[in-house]
Amino acid sequence: MEKTIRIAVLGASGYTGADLVRLAARHPNIEIVALTANTHAGKPMAAVFPHLSMLQLPDLVEWEAVDWTGVDAVFCGLPHGTTQKITASVLAANPKTRIIDMSADFRLRDPDVYAQWYGHEHYATELQAEAVYGLTEHYRDRIRTARLIACPGCYPTAVLTALLPIVAEGLVDPADIVIDAKSGVSGAGRGPKQNTLFCEAGEGLSPYAIASHRHAPEIEQEIGQAAGTKLLVNFTPHLIPMSRGELCTSYLRLMPGASVAGLRGALAARYGDEEFVQVLDEGVMPQTQNVRGSNYVQIGVFADRIPNRAIVISALDNLVKGSAGQALQNMNVAFALDETIGLRQLPLFP
Amino acid sequence: MEKTIRIAVLGASGYTGADLVRLAARHPNIEIVALTANTHAGKPMAAVFPHLSMLQLPDLVEWEAVDWTGVDAVFCGLPHGTTQKITASVLAANPKTRIIDMSADFRLRDPDVYAQWYGHEHYATELQAEAVYGLTEHYRDRIRTARLIACPGCYPTAVLTALLPIVAEGLVDPADIVIDAKSGVSGAGRGPKQNTLFCEAGEGLSPYAIASHRHAPEIEQEIGQAAGTKLLVNFTPHLIPMSRGELCTSYLRLMPGASVAGLRGALAARYGDEEFVQVLDEGVMPQTQNVRGSNYVQIGVFADRIPNRAIVISALDNLVKGSAGQALQNMNVAFALDETIGLRQLPLFP
Amino acid sequence: MEKTIRIAVLGASGYTGADLVRLAARHPNIEIVALTANTHAGKPMAAVFPHLSMLQLPDLVEWEAVDWTGVDAVFCGLPHGTTQKITASVLAANPKTRIIDMSADFRLRDPDVYAQWYGHEHYATELQAEAVYGLTEHYRDRIRTARLIACPGCYPTAVLTALLPIVAEGLVDPADIVIDAKSGVSGAGRGPKQNTLFCEAGEGLSPYAIASHRHAPEIEQEIGQAAGTKLLVNFTPHLIPMSRGELCTSYLRLMPGASVAGLRGALAARYGDEEFVQVLDEGVMPQTQNVRGSNYVQIGVFADRIPNRAIVISALDNLVKGSAGQALQNMNVAFALDETIGLRQLPLFP
Amino acid sequence: MEKTIRIAVLGASGYTGADLVRLAARHPNIEIVALTANTHAGKPMAAVFPHLSMLQLPDLVEWEAVDWTGVDAVFCGLPHGTTQKITASVLAANPKTRIIDMSADFRLRDPDVYAQWYGHEHYATELQAEAVYGLTEHYRDRIRTARLIACPGCYPTAVLTALLPIVAEGLVDPADIVIDAKSGVSGAGRGPKQNTLFCEAGEGLSPYAIASHRHAPEIEQEIGQAAGTKLLVNFTPHLIPMSRGELCTSYLRLMPGASVAGLRGALAARYGDEEFVQVLDEGVMPQTQNVRGSNYVQIGVFADRIPNRAIVISALDNLVKGSAGQALQNMNVAFALDETIGLRQLPLFP
């Protein structure tokens, strides 16, 4: 007999929430029992996202209106800062529910780093202490039993999947990492802003948040842990005129004895059994087109012209593997399901 | 016990073929046993379509190399003109196989009309005589037993789904139909051509093939049959700077006694039980974004400013409901499977 | 000695205002003396439009702060409804200034029609009575001496340029005009709205404002005047995923004795001496790419499959010939300059 | 009295050639006397580039058919490899003509480096020896009298404009330069190729030619000369879904005593008198949108999170400042005209 997991999605009116619903609605073990969006409460989901109008979904409600008893898992796609208090409240109402947070609220383990980057004290430091970082392929064991899973940001998922194994094995210098990151516009969310209008972001290319993007400390936390030292990375994001997709080009210095082929081999070995991580053969280019709409991430390793340097490139769909897809993957792990259930849709190309 | 249908895909190196593979690979009853692409024979599919590299697929071969015994269904995504002879050859080798043709080769029932539009005599008129037009919602009964299914063109699927019921019921004047059609660039195929380069088709809008597009006689054949008379339609296509999606705006004259609400009601009644046809409520706009990557088609009905005229708009994904998706839907019908199997992926938005 | 025209631009923070500044800044007879944008007052123009940062421009101010004495021409790019009162105020302060209005405020000559479409009484009916409709090629003589020029909407410019001559000559039935209109996203302005976000408008196609777009009565006013009768037209706009460009496909019924070649000939004769109107040879397609960034409009005439019907297609850049460029062209006329000065930049392709 | 320069454009059927014609046609001192395109010989330019149909231009001819006497300047936009022999032939026919080459044929001064990267011996080493590298702001004095001007590649123009001054002043380590380069699709030319189709390049992002792009040795030649040493750079290009525009993000290590503010100051001082180079204030982002269609280049300097590192970003239009615009600028220099003539069109935004 199949088990059914009753889920609620908080913040269902954003792109991340909608993509979670898109995937969850076709997951054979999921029943969607509540969708919240405080500014759209009372509307049917189809009024907010007409591409989901063929589904039978509960109407949007305010999060305060949800009956948490009987909810097995809660996906949070809320703006950062709000999830901390809501999570505490949900867990108080139903201590058995599992929280799978897609926001940034529980990703940074050091409360001081959180406060520095988000401009306020963390509102739920005890929950932060128990949160497990939801980079599935690296935290799987802890995710199985976690009550609160803090899914990584989209950029950190791309970067860390590519770099953690080779940093951990001491193949590259963790103090000399330059990450040139490129993202489609959906990463900026659905709220109307001038810089994400079609006429502003289209047919153009802009760097943004140089040396100040909130995904930098998250990358530094995990790379630093793998390297066994505190460190800083260069992280320079650029806005690309496409809706979905993210590609991070990491420029690395090889440690003595390491080689480009060695990097590729280490990654291939590390991810050989992973469904969703593709380490590409020599000469094959990662491309966001190849993972669009899917939970796959591609990694390519290339020689630099400068001796003893390497280039590692990773590509994913920021809304799927970079957010909703990985969240669902974590739910599968947390509920002891086959990890690929509901996530085997192939990339949509062209 | 589940039945397994062994399929071959002819012309797997085109966009239509690739989308068929994308869908078929996740269809629980399908085993892909052969993929052909004569110009790419010998290559793995992943070399031609890296977005499918996670699949275990047979390598591309020449169509002459396929062993047709044991192939239950053949999907043809070949350029028009070539399918006629190949189909005859395949059926000679295995008379029990079912041919599901996505090309234009068997759509026009009148050999003279075919010759006029395609510039040569039809090479397989006997097969043409038995071919069933694969507009699933309208030819379902005949598809169940058809040996050769001629799937409609992308534009005819959009137009006929919207217009056939209201023409058949005599609600609109079949002699006064103006169809302004708009398509994404993938409809032009993957062969490199100057006018479909990014720099040529991007940030711009062009009409093409005015009054001379080969989908016009196909529309006229079906509309004429529904109306019980020979007729001509205006059919004016435009190339839109997007990859997928098609939207047809049909301008119609109401017959005495008919009304816009009556049109909408007739369509809603006709398609009430259909999974893949959505007749939208008054005021809701069909948008290609809402069906991208999916097998759904949306239809909206609107009043014109000119009295006794109406506007009917239909939107679909030209590669899915307009081609590979409908082909798979027809396979489901032909093999007595639930018609929605393998086709329930939701639209990808954004 | 060259004459210098001192101009003010009201509403310089919108796309139309910015394009006016782009063109005016390189016009040899223009001095820009004031730029207004009430929500951005106090900022340099480069802070609002960095692509103009190489220019020496006056800072943005509130319109109330402008000294109108010595201002020879005022270009208004304000939201509709606001221009009426401001125009009255400006003309009171300086009766000699010429107003070139790019808003909709003075386009409709019938106050009742205005009130019906804009939801309030016209605030300056006396000025409305003296306003000249600024379709340059058709109202040139009156523009020379007009104090208030009401530049047409972008869609009406495309439609009327193509249709007025053939309606006036009685070649097509004015009671049976269907206009399928397609516009890039810049027509929706720079204010952040959800439906014009890159992720919403990109890779998709949506009809909007069917039978209710405010450009319809403007078209009807001018077509009706040419035809000598009141009439309604079908006008159905669609949003296209590109920033600039507009293409209108008009479906027409020929009057007895008229022919497609006759239509083309009439247009070619009418516009033979016009720099900015290109009547294309048989078989050549209008494309928005071919006029991007320029003041040119292209017109093509095509036969319909249905006998005695024709298709006339016109393409322009909505921000240039559809707005700022035509406004500047009108200024050239009003000040007795060569009409092409400042407007000879060639289209930007690709 | 104004001087008239009679020019020929070789390779006028490519994007670079067309953009040269677009600009030259409005240059008050230029008369276009010949346009060549061997595969399109005999056609009017308007048949190949309809956006230029309003111009009176000579028809396309084969380059062998041009009468070089009386041609004052020849712009070459031919594929690399072909220009060397043609240039020799042209100069033999008319030793007084000035050659302004937009191809790669004369950029690399070392014949061995040329042979290594282009796969054949240089066919005109004597001409190579006299060629002047056409980075206007850095080679202006030599361009004045040069008979053969080798205009830089688009990427080198962006990179070298930003880096040459700070390398020459010893502010950054020339041995540790990482250049993440991003280009629109027009850089790949107008020849139909699968990877530049709308459906392949759209809505996606791909690195290409990693560590093997032919612009790398050109950058190394100039940076090495400024640094006084041979060196290698990292140069990693990416294809971006836009037609025009290029942005290079250079990651640099500061030399002892240097600072981010010092870099910005050095660039601002170096380019203070240059019309076409904009060194942006602290915090202002270079964006390709801001220079689209224009000859301007924007440079921004940013602090890295890693101490003693800096990020320098430069943006330009690859077809204008990166090719045809700079070529025209060089002609202005070579013929002692005001350097900005014909190049003052403002960027087209949106």
Description:
The structure is a homotetramer. Chain A has two domains: about 5-130, NAD(P)-binding Rossmann-like Domain (Rossmann fold); about 155-315, 2-Layer Sandwich (Dihydrodipicolinate Reductase, domain 2), CATH 3.30.360. A seven-stranded parallel β-sheet of chain A has the order 3-2-1-4-5-7-6, with helices on both faces. A seven-stranded mixed β-sheet of chain A has the order 9-10-8-11-14-13-12. Chain A is about 30% helix and about 20% strand. In chain A, helix 1 links the parallel strand 1 (about 5-10) and strand 2. Chain A has helices spanning about 15-25, 45-50, 85-95, 110-120, 125-130, 135-145, 155-170, 200, 215-225, 260-270, 320-335, and strands spanning about 5-10, 30-35, 60, 75, 100, 130-135, 150, 180-185, 205, 235-240, 245-255, 275-280, 295-305, 310-315. Chain A contains eleven helices and 14 strands. With about 350 residues, chain A is of the alpha/beta class. Chains in contact: A-B, A-C, A-D, B-C, B-D, C-D. At the A-D interface, strand 8, strand 9, strand 10, strand 11 and strand 13 of A face strand 8, strand 9, strand 10, strand 11 and strand 13 of D.
